[in-house]
Structures are given as structure tokens and as C-alpha cells.
């Protein structure tokens, strides 16, 4: 079974590596990462302060915006079981979930490789200008990026699996999900919080910061990069709410894991039921 | 009159002299709450130098040769005690090492070791002063609860001392580097303070000059209340867990000071709570969690300062009135303003804002459009701490953008009507002091970017050249 | 869309956690007095105000609690805890003994200390020379 999943993964990786989409994504991501790293350097250059933390934080912003979008678009376009190829593929005497798992893993490898390439280029540029610094901060950004890739590929798979032959619909839905995850959810949380009394409001916001995978990723990455005081007094409230630094890390990890496992499970179920 | 140098042997012999019967002035039985002054040290805890002091006449200059002198010392005469070759005064570990109780006394050129002992409630210090016109110069004080303590001691001079706190002891169990309480007209210049609870603690002490000091790696670099008309010039307050905080005071002047790298949960470069008529000019406030904080503070003016790399440049409570920010440069801050309450009459004019990005078409150095400091999100975060968790999220940015499109959202905007188009030259603002050495891990792991590039390239290239290629190619490319 | 609903439901549940007000532990490096904005250096003179539905407000000096209540009276149903000056344990203000000790150096100089019982007060050398202080004045912010 593992061999089979791996075969599907290799196959998907091959297709992805050769696709113009991924090549463009790799180039654009590297370009943006380079730009962010460069402007971070220019900003801090005059003072020699916050060199790497500020660059890493800017990279986090980029990752939070671009990575979910790429994973959702790429995933929903690729994983939507279109009539024809998919029919043939899923007609094999192999459980459908295994094929899906293989394909998702292949896509993940392709996107992860493109992201690593981008971070690597940006990292080389930063080192060239300001010397080696903050490797652990840099790795935190990379980890965030890989985690969000997994989360939103799983969500894309869940969206696409139920829509055989309706790629456009899967794509539209994944764009909605992206918009909700990146902006709308936070706006709603802030709106709700602004109407509550301070105790309830801060519980709503702290829960929201851990529930939404994009927020959980941001919270975790900032605390990893800037230290536990990254959000000032709000950090202290969060640490108290969660029960300490390790608890925050555990909750962030749990949130990201759940957002990967649950949609993946939903995708497998939906694909199993779909009439191809 | 000058006493000739005294041989070490004589000094040691002096410890054997009988101690006068009235030695027990500092009675330990007194409750600490009344702040009983430590007086003459107990026999057995007395420094061998005590007999010299006791034998001296007011106005004498006593030169102490190099060596280690164990025990505490009471200076109750207007003498100068001068160390030659940095003699070490090693305290008893139970009280203040040097206790100055007579007007006009001087102590200079000693290394003073508090031996981590004593009692916060009794203000145990390296040098404890309770007399006017004391001078403490060129002393190095370590392992004392308080470094130098001025208690009701007017006209003191503290010059060129170095105070190093007790490592690994929680802030609740140590005192400040320089503690000034109810003492007027002091001069504190060129002192270095590291690792104490607060660098300088100043309470109810006015008309002082604080110049060229550096306090770092502590809680508050400056902790200050009920003190008026003080002048701060060329000081550095760095890497504090809390920064610099001033309360309930008036007419303070800050020129060319540095407030740097104060990055704790509650850190502020310069916090003012109910402080009026302060003038801050040509200061550098950089890499602080929050740059400047104003609550209940009126008529303060900030000119030609650089406020850089803060999470929030300025926090203003609406209880603050008629404050002015002119000709400052705000560089690389994540947000310019957090407004607590509903509105502010703070005046911002002619400042440079690095994130403004508006052109200067007529070349007069002023950007063509005003700079807006406030937005709906900042109102929200000002009144709800947890909103800071979302300050760097897209939602906060979207709110900011929406507001530029629909100004009605922010009914009472805070504007700089004539923002500078270019970073001004602020020649008097001090430079950043060098950062601490980067961690050793940086050098060993500098291969990571190269490894990432290679790994990414390998996966993509190897994946694209899979032996499966011919078979897969027949199915046609996805996406 | 279902996931958003679930998320909001979780939020709603999380925000309803409640019960009788319990004092929160003070972090002596990072917690800040809600009135004077100073980091709270010692538990011994601290106080906290727990208003229903609000974040706890911490104070480094009973004088700061008094000044705070002067400008913003405590809402109905609030609980006030004060730290025992001997032990640092939290005591409800109703049960505590408050003493004003002239000249005692508390963080903001109010000279006010709290104890669990009068016996504790008498055992505490810090309260020597002090006089009993009316709790009502503390709560009303000093107004008659």
C-alpha cells in the first residue's frame, strides 16, 4: 500500500514539477521573498536593529497571504476528479483514498520544494548583506510555510473531492475559503469582540487566534521569532489563557494538525461516496 | 590636612582595637518599616578602616592602599576616603558596606562587594548615603542589593561609578542600581549600571542633573516619580524588561538620550503617567515594544527625536491634553499610534513617517497629503489588549485600507497635516550603540539557505525527471 | 461555511467560561498596575479588582486601587482581593484588615497594608505605628 501511495505521489510530483503553474509559483515566490528580505534589510540597515526578526516577520506576512492561496488554487485545480483521467485512475483496483493520499503528498512535495527554493534564495541574499543571523527564526518561517501548505492542500482536497468534473466550482470555493481564512474570520472576530465586555472579548480573540489555521500559524510563528513577548501585553494574556509557553505551542500545533487531518479525512470520505 | 599613607599592617592591627561602647547605633531590633538608618556596624562586622575614620578629623583625606578590607564602614565625618590601586571593600554581607552619615564626605576609587547579603527593607546598599553633599566617584560596586542609595541627601555627586547587580536573582529580591529618595540637587554623571532591578530609581527628588549614564539589562532603566525640574542628557537606557517610566512629575528635560531595545511584555521606551511640561529633544527611541506612552500627561513636547522599529510608536490615552510632536522622525514602526479612549488633541506636525510614501510634487520638502496616524483597528486595540494578536493580520490592514477609502469610519482622525517627505537630518540624535554579540548558533547554521535551495531544486528536478515520466506523459499534464 | 459556523460556536463556548471570581496569580516581572502602569514588584502590597465580564485589573499598591476606584467606580458584582502583607496570600477585601502606616515605603507610597486577621497585623513588624483604615474609603476612592 505504501508503495502504491508513493507511486501516486511520484506521479503527481512529476506532473506538478513540469506544470507551468508550479514553475511560475516558484519564480514568483522566490521573487517576493527576495523583495521582502531586501526591503527588510533596507528598513533596518540604517540602525542595525531587529535585522533578522523584522525580515522574518515580513516573510511571515508573505507566507500567510500567498501560501494558502497557492495551496488552495493548485490543490483544487489538480485534485478535482475530472471525467476522463480521474475516471481511469480511480478505476484501478486500489482504494480511492490511497490514490488521493498519494496525489496530495506529491503536490505537497512540489509546493514545499518551490517554497524551500524561494526561502533559500531569500536567505542567501540576507546572509550576503547582513551576515549569518537568526537561523532558528528563519526555520520557524519555513515550518509555518510547510504547515500551511499541508493544511490548505487538505482543505482543497476536501473541496475538490466532492465536485467531480466541476473544477471551476472547486476553484471558486477555495478562493472563498482563502478570503475567509485570511481576512473575513479575523474581521468577524474583531467585530464580535468589539461588542463584548473586555473579559469575554479577549477570550474570543485569543480563541480565534488559535482556531483559524492562518491565525494559529501567525501566532506561533511570531512567538517563535520575536519571543513570547511578541504581542506585548496581549502575549501575557494569551500565555495565561493557554497555560504557558508550551501550551500555546501545543495548541498552535494541534490547530494546524487538526486542520490537516480533518479535511483530509473529509476528502477521503467524499471521494469514496462520489459517483465518478 | 592630609594623612600620610598607612601601611597595611597598621590597618590590620587596627581591627584588634577595642570597639567603643556606643557602637550599636543601628539597632536591628527596630522594625524595618520605619526605615531605621544603619549606623555603626557591629563589632566583628566592622571594616579595619573604621579606626582610621574614627581617628581622622573633618576635612582629612585618607588614602587607602590596595588590598581587601573585610567588613562594613561608617563614615560620620566630612572626610575623603580615596583608594589607591583599587582597594576592595568586602562587606559583612549583613548590611550596607559603606554608610555615609556626615555632610561633605567623599569616597573614591574603591571596589565594593556587597556579598549578596542584607535586607531590602533596610535598604542594604554598596554605598548608603544619609547626609548632604556626599561625593561617590569611580567606585565599582557589585553583588549589593542597592548600588548607591541616597536617602534625604541633598547636593550629592555620583560620578563614574560602575554598578553590577546580583545575577540570577528575581527583581522582587534586589534593589536599584542608583536609588535616589527625597534628595535634591544631585549630579549623576558617567555611571554604568548593569543587571540590577532598576537602573536609576528617583523618587521625590528634584533639580538634579543626570548626564552620560548607561543602564542596561535590567527591569526599568529609569523608574521615576514625584520629582520635578530634572535634566537628563546623553544617557542610555537599554535592554530593559520595562524601559523608562516617569510618573507624577513636572518640567523634566530629556536631550540626546537613547532608549533602546526595551522589548518586554510591558516595555515602553519612555512612559509618562501624569507628567506635565516635559521637553524631549534629539533622543533616539529605537527597537522598543512601544516607543512613547502618554497617560494623563499634559503640555509635553517631543521635538527632533527618532522613534524607530517599535511595534507601536506612540500610545496616547485620551486623558492626555495638548501634547505636541514636531520635527520627529518615525522610522520602520509597525503602527504609528494606539489611541486609548475616543479622541486626542495631541498635535502632530512636520514629522517624518517612513511608511507614508506620498510624493512631494512642489519640492518644498512636505508631502502633498497629510499623514493619518489613527485607524479603526488602533482604536480597538487601544481599548482591548488582546486585539494586539491581530495587529499584523490582514484584517487590520484591510481596516486601514477601507478607512483611507471611506474616511467616515474614523470620525475623529489623528493627522499630521504637513508630514516631511524625506528623512530629516537630525545631527544631534545619538547613534545606536552596538548590539550584543549574535548568538553562536548563527555561524554554525548559516548553511541553511543553501541547503534549502538545493533540497528544493533537487525535488523539483528529480521529480520532473522521474523514470515514470514516459508512462505519466501519456496521461497528459494536470493543472 | 460549516467550518466557520463551528469555529464561531467554539468561540461562543470559550467565551462563556465563568464561575465565581478567583484571584489571578501575578507575574512579578511582567504584570503592570492598572493605575500607575508600573510593573508590580511585590505581591505584598498588591490588590486586584475582578469586575464581572471584565479582564482582571491588578494594582501594585492599595493606594493605586483607591485612586483607580476614584475615577472609575467598581461595577455591581465586582470582587476585590488584597494581598496579605505577611504572606502575599489573596484575601477578599471584605475579610481583610487594612492598616495605614505613615512613612511605610509601599510601591506608590500610600503606606497602606492588608492582613488576613488583626493577629496577623499585630505580628507584622511593618504595621507597627499604623492605624486602622476604613475599607469603605478604599472602595469609594476616598470620597465620603
Describe this structure in words.
- The complex is a heterotrimer of chains A (276), B (479) and C (144).
- Chain A has 276 residues and is mainly α.
- Chain A is 86% helix and 0% strand.
- Chain A has one domain.
- Chain A has 11 helices and no strands.
- The radius of gyration of chain A is 20 Å and the shape is globular.
- The model of chain A has no long low-confidence stretch (mean pLDDT 86).
- Chain B has one domain: Single-stranded right-handed beta-helix, Pectin lyase-like (Pectate Lyase C-like, 3 Solenoid), CATH 2.160.20.
- Helix content of chain B is 13%, strand content 33%.
- In chain B, the strands form 3 sheets. Chain B has a 23-stranded parallel beta sheet that branches. A 13-stranded parallel beta sheet of chain B has the order 1-4-7-10-13-16-19-21-23-26-29-32-35, with no helix packed on it.
- Chain C is α+β, with helices and mostly antiparallel strands.
- The mean pLDDT of chain C is 83.
- At the A-B interface, helix 1, helix 2, helix 3, helix 5 and helix 6 of A face helix 4, helix 5, helix 6 and helix 7 of B.
Largest sheet of chain B: 23 strands, parallel
Find the structural class of chain B using helix and strand composition.
Answer: mainly beta
**Overall residue-averaged pLDDT value of chain B:** 86
**SSE string of chain C, helices as H and strands as E:** HEEHEEEEHEH
Sheet with most strands of chain C: 4 strands, antiparallel
CATH superfamily of chain B: Single-stranded right-handed beta-helix, Pectin lyase-like
Most extensive protein-chain contact, per-chain counts: A-B, 89 and 68 residues
Low-confidence stretches of chain C: none
Helix content of chain B: 10-25%
CATH topology of chain B: Pectate Lyase C-like
The total number of structural domains of chain B is 1
Total helical elements of chain C = 4
Task: Give the strand order of the largest sheet of chain C, numbering strands 1, 2, ... along the chain.
Answer: 2-1-3-4
The number of distinct β-strands of chain B equals: 38
Radius of gyration of chain B: 29 Å
β-strand percent of chain B reads 25-35%
CATH architecture of chain B: 3 Solenoid
Strand proportion of chain C, as a percent range, falls in 15-25%
Q: In CATH, what is the class of chain B?
A: Mainly Beta
Whole-number count of domains of chain C: 1
Amino acid at each position: 500500500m505504501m508503495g502504491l501511495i508513493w507511486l501516486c505521489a511520484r506521479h503527481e510530483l512529476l506532473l506538478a514539477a513540469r506544470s507551468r503553474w508550479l514553475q511560475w509559483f516558484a519564480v514568483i515566490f522566490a521573487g517576493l521573498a527576495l523583495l521582502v528580505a531586501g526591503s527588510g534589510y533596507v528598513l533596518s540597515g540604517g540602525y542595525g536593529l531587529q535585522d533578522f526578526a523584522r525580515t522574518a516577520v515580513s516573510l511571515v506576512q508573505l507566507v500567510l497571504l500567498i501560501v494558502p492561496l497557492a495551496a488552495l488554487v493548485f490543490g483544487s485545480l489538480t485534485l478535482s476528479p475530472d471525467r476522463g483521467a480521474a475516471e481511469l485512475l480511480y478505476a484501478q483496483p486500489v482504494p480511492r483514498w490511497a490514490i488521493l493520499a498519494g496525489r496530495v503528498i506529491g503536490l505537497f512535495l512540489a509546493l514545499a520544494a518551490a517554497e524551500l527554493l524561494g526561502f533559500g534564495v531569500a536567505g542567501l541574499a540576507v546572509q550576503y548583506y547582513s551576515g549569518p543571523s537568526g537561523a532558528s527564526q528563519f526555520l520557524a518561517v519555513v515550518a509555518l510555510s510547510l504547515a500551511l501548505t499541508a493544511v490548505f492542500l487538505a482543505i482543497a482536497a476536501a473541496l475538490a473531492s466532492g465536485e467531480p468534473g466541476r473544477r471551476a466550482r472547486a476553484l471558486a470555493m477555495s478562493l472563498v475559503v482563502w478570503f475567509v481564512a485570511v481576512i473575513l474570520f479575523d474581521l468577524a472576530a474583531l467585530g464580535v469582540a468589539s461588542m463584548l465586555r473586555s473579559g469575554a472579548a479577549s477570550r474570543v480573540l485569543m480563541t480565534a487566534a488559535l482556531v483559524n489555521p492562518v491565525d494559529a500559524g501567525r501566532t506561533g510563528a511570531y512567538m517563535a521569532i520575536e519571543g513570547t513577548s511578541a504581542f506585548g501585553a496581549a502575549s501575557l494574556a494569551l500565555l495565561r489563557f493557554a497555560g504557558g509557553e508550551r501550551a500555546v505551542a501545543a495548541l498552535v500545533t494541534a490547530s494546524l494538525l487538526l486542520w490537516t487531518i480533518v479535511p483530509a479525512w473529509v476528502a477521503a470520505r467524499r471521494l469514496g461516496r462520489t459517483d465518478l | 590636612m592630609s594623612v600620610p599613607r598607612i601601611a597595611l599592617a597598621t590597618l590590620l592591627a587596627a581591627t584588634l582595637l577595642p570597639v567603643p561602647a556606643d557602637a550599636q547605633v543601628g539597632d536591628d531590633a527596630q522594625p524595618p518599616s520605619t526605615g531605621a538608618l544603619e549606623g555603626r556596624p557591629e563589632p566583628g562586622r566592622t571594616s579595619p578602616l573604621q579606626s582610621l575614620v574614627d581617628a581622622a578629623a573633618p576635612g582629612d583625606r585618607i588614602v587607602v592602599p590596595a588590598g581587601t578590607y573585610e567588613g562594613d564602614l561608617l563614615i560620620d565625618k566630612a572626610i575623603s576616603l580615596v583608594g589607591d590601586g583599587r582597594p576592595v571593600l568586602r562587606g559583612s554581607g549583613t548590611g550596607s558596606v559603606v554608610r555615609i552619615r556626615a555632610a561633605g564626605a567623599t569616597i573614591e576609587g574603591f571596589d565594593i562587594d556587597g556579598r549578596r547579603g542584607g535586607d531590602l527593607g533596610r535598604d542594604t546598599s554598596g554605598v548608603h548615603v544619609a547626609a548632604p553633599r556626599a561625593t561617590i566617584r569611580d567606585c565599582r560596586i557589585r553583588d549589593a542589593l542597592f548600588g548607591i542609595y541616597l536617602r534625604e541627601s541633598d547636593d550629592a555627586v555620583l560620578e563614574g561609578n560602575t554598578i553590577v547587580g546580583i545575577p540570577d536573582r528575581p527583581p522582587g529580591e534586589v534593589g536599584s542600581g542608583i536609588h535616589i529618595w527625597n534628595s535634591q540637587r544631585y549630579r549623576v554623571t558617567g555611571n554604568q549600571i548593569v543587571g540590577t532591578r532598576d537602573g536609576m530609581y528617583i523618587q521625590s527628588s528634584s533639580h538634579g542633573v543626570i548626564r552620560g549614564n548607561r543602564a542596561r539589562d535590567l527591569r526599568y532603566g529609569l523608574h521615576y516619580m514625584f520629582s520635578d525640574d530634572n535634566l537628563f542628557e546623553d544617557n542610555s537606557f537599554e535592554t530593559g524588561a520595562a524601559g523608562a517610566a516617569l510618573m507624577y512629575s513636572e518640567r523634566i528635560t530629556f536631550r540626546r538620550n537613547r532608549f533602546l531595545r526595551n522589548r518586554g511584555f510591558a516595555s515602553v521606551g519612555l512612559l509618562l503617567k501624569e507628567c506635565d511640561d516635559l521637553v524631549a529633544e534629539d533622543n533616539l527611541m529605537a527597537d522598543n515594544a512601544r516607543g512613547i506612552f502618554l497617560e494623563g500627561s499634559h503640555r509635553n513636547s517631543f521635538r527632533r527625536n527618532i522613534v524607530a522599529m517599535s511595534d507601536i510608536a506612540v500610545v496616547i490615552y485620551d486623558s492626555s491634553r495638548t501634547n505636541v510632536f514636531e520635527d520627529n522622525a518615525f522610522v520602520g514602526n509597525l503602527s504609528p499610534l494606539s489611541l486609548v479612549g475616543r479622541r486626542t488633541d495631541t498635535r502632530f506636525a512636520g514629522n517624518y513617517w517612513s511608511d507614508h510614501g506620498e510624493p512631494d510634487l512642489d519640492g518644498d520638502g512636505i508631502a502633498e497629503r497629510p499623514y493619518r496616524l489613527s485607524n479603526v483597528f488602533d482604536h480597538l486595540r487601544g481599548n482591548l489588549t488582546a486585539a494586539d494578536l491581530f495587529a499584523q493580520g490582514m484584517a487590520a490592514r484591510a481596516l486601514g485600507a477601507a478607512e483611507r477609502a471611506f474616511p467616515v469610519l474614523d470620525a475623529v482622525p489623528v493627522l499630521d497635516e504637513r508630514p516631511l517627505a524625506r528623512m530629516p537630518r537630525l545631527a544631534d540624535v545619538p547613534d545606536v550603540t552596538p548590539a550584543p554579540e549574535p548568538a553562536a548558533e548563527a555561524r554554525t547554521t548559516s548553511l541553511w539557505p543553501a541547503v534549502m535551495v538545493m533540497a528544493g531544486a533537487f525535488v523539483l528536478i528529480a521529480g520532473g525527471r522521474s523514470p515514470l515520466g514516459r508512462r505519466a506523459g501519456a496521461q497528459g499534464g494536470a493543472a | 461555511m460549516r467550518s466557520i459556523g463551528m469555529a464561531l460556536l467554539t468561540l461562543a463556548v470559550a467565551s462563556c467560561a465563568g464561575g465565581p471570581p478567583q484571584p489571578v496569580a501575578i507575574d512579578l516581572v511582567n504584570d503592570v498596575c492598572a493605575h500607575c502602569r508600573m510593573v508590580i514588584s511585590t505581591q505584598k502590597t498588591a490588590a486586584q479588582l475582578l469586575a464581572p465580564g471584565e479582564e482582571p485589573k491588578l494594582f501594585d499598591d492599595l493606594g493605586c486601587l483607591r485612586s483607580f476606584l476614584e475615577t472609575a467606580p467598581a461595577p455591581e458584582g465586582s470582587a476585590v482581593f488584597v494581598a496579605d502583607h505577611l504572606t502575599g496570600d489573596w484575601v477578599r477585601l471584605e475579610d481583610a484588615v487594612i492598616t495605614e502606616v505613615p512613612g511605610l515605603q509601599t510601591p506608590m507610597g500610600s503606606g497602606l497594608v492588608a492582613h488576613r486577621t488583626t493577629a496577623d497585623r499585630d505580628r507584622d513588624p511593618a504595621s507597627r505605628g499604623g492605624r486602622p483604615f476604613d475599607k469603605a474609603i478604599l472602595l469609594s476612592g476616598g470620597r465620603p
